[in-house]
Automatic annotation (TrEMBL):
Its EC number is 6.3.2.9. InterPro entries: Mur-like_cat_sf (IPR036565), Mur_ligase_C (IPR004101), Mur_ligase_C_dom_sf (IPR036615), Mur_ligase_cen (IPR013221), MurD (IPR005762). Its main location: cytoplasm. One of its GO terms (molecular function) is ATP binding. The gene is murD. It is found in: Cytoplasm. HAMAP family: MurD. This is UDP-N-acetylmuramoylalanine--D-glutamate ligase. It comes from the Bacteria. Residues 313-426 form the Mur ligase C-terminal domain. Keywords: ATP-binding, Cell cycle, Cell division, Cell shape, Cell wall biogenesis/degradation, Cytoplasm, Ligase, Nucleotide-binding, Peptidoglycan synthesis. Cell wall formation. Catalyzes the addition of glutamate to the nucleotide precursor UDP-N-acetylmuramoyl-L-alanine (UMA). GO terms for cellular component: cytoplasm.
């Protein structure tokens, strides 16, 4: 679809502005519309490119005349403007779908309810250290479309959310990774886990026998979904519970990664991996299989796995004060992420949690809370559901309404050898701009103790 016709971009965030930049470069007449307020940074970027845009509204006359619409992943298909576009038969696609048309780079696409940011960053880190010409995009970092417009990478590691998958049609992953499927964002999927699972399985859409699909053989929902959708690609499972023929498995604290292409890679989970905790064994296995399939050297993979630094706000060690460890896991915005965090800490815990509850089911946390958590500090405007869920499991549940207050009270409740863990299991929008703001305020509060 070269250089003619009008393309409208809905949403002027990182992905929208990147898509606008690429569409303009390819000769389209581009218009950007955002129903919210466009930040100064993105306004300036659009003005610099001389791309017309509107903020805080969707003017139908300027949108319904597009030959194609690229929408932000955050806009649901039920939004009035999307329904009108669909009724008129105007194609609505994602930034990822659009940008892929203009690059021949190999696509390594990583999805899952939890761990996708860490796994994407780790995979990118290994590939870059091995000397590959690789970009990182999708749900993380700089817009994919903006990079396609200005860079010339041979590979992309893309972190892909279910919302992005919903708007992908012809796009194909050369290597697809599905880490896990657990309840998240169910408000977008008629509150049905099978709808959300079907969305995640779109990661293997359009794959052929020449492509690769890597998945967790221990994840119940993934196995259920695979009964309905049969991958055409070559499959590599990973497991910490059983041996697999080709893929990755855990035996006596050693990860074994084996593909038909080359010699086996073994790594000790105790001494070779920078990332600790059971969930990170899975993340490391997934990244390791990608690296082995790209025929990278074992020494390179092992070295990268050992010197990797994790993402900010994901089990990030903040400080040790009076023998108490403070960990910022503000990115844990669902119950499953908090389960992983609790599972990875081996001391008594003072848990800071709360915020905007997305209809959470806290039952899965009960065993870990009973065995590890000595007190819960609620950080949010309405903490009733946390009290109801855990009042029989911990002796102390306290309400706080700022990061300062939460950090101070948690510090007083903890003793030498304990861990204060911010892992909210909830969205942050009641008291903070986003999870980054929540994490940054917590870190600042800890440093003031």
């Amino acid at each position: 679809m070269a250089g003619q016709g009008r393309v409208v971009i809905l949403g002027a965030g990182e992905s929208g502005v990147g898509a606008a930049k690429l569409a303009q470069l390819k000769g389209f007449d581009v218009f950007v519309s955002d129903f919210g307020i466009i930040t100064d940074k993105y306004k300036a970027a659009l003005e610099k490119l001389n791309i017309s845009f509107e903020s805080e509204r969707h003017t139908e006359d300027l949108i319904l005349n597009a030959i194609e619409v690229i929408k932000s992943p955050g806009i649901p298909s039920t939004a009035p403007i999307i329904k009108k576009l669909t009724a008129k038969g105007i194609p609505v696609i994602s930034e990822i779908e659009f940008a892929k048309r203009y690059t021949d780079a190999k696509m390594i696409c990583i999805t899952g309810s939890n761990g996708k940011s860490t796994t994407s960053l780790l995979t990118y880190h290994i590939l870059r250290n091995a000397g590959l010409n690789v970009g990182l995009a999708g749900n993380i970092g700089q817009s994919f479309a903006a990079q396609v417009a200005s860079e010339n990478y041979d590979y992309y590691v893309l972190e892909i959310s279910s919302f992005m998958l919903d708007d992908m049609f012809d796009f194909k992953a050369d290597i697809a990774v599905l880490l896990n499927i657990t309840p998240d964002h169910l408000d977008r999927y008629d509150h049905k886990l099978e709808n959300y699972a079907a969305s995640k399985m779109r990661i293997i859409k359009n794959q052929t026998a020449d492509d690769i699909f890597i998945y967790c053989a221990d994840d119940e929902e993934t196995l259920k979904a695979l009964e309905k959708v049969k991958p055409l690609a070559k499959t590599y499972p990973f497991s910490i519970l059983k041996k697999v023929d080709q893929g990755a498995y855990l035996e006596e604290n050693q990860i074994h990664i084996h593909t038909e292409l080359n010699n086996e890679l073994t790594m000790s989970i105790l001494t070779d991996l920078a990332l600790q905790g059971k969930h990170n064994i899975y993340n490391s296995m997934a990244s390791g299989i990608v690296a082995k399939r790209l025929e990278l050297k074992n020494e390179t993979i092992r070295e990268s796995m050992g010197n990797f630094k994790n993402i900010e706000h994901r089990l990030e060690h903040v400080a040790k004060i009076s023998g108490i460890d403070f960990i910022n896991d503000s990115k844990a915005t669902n119950v499953n992420s908090t389960w992983y965090a609790l599972e990875s800490v081996n001391t008594d815990i003072v848990l800071i949690m709360g915020g905007v509850d997305k209809g959470n089911d806290y039952d899965m946390l009960k065993d870990l809370v009973q065995s590890k958590v000595k007190a819960i500090v609620c950080l949010g405007k309405d903490n009733k559901r946390i009290h109801d869920a855990f009042e029989d499991d911990v002796d102390i549940i306290v309400n706080t309404f700022s990061a300062d207050e939460a950090a101070q009270i948690a510090f007083h409740l903890a003793k030498r050898g304990d861990t204060v863990l911010l892992s909210p299991a909830c969205a942050s929008f009641d008291l903070f701009k986003n999870y980054e703001d929540r994490g940054n305020q917590f870190k600042a509060a800890v440093r003031e103790l």
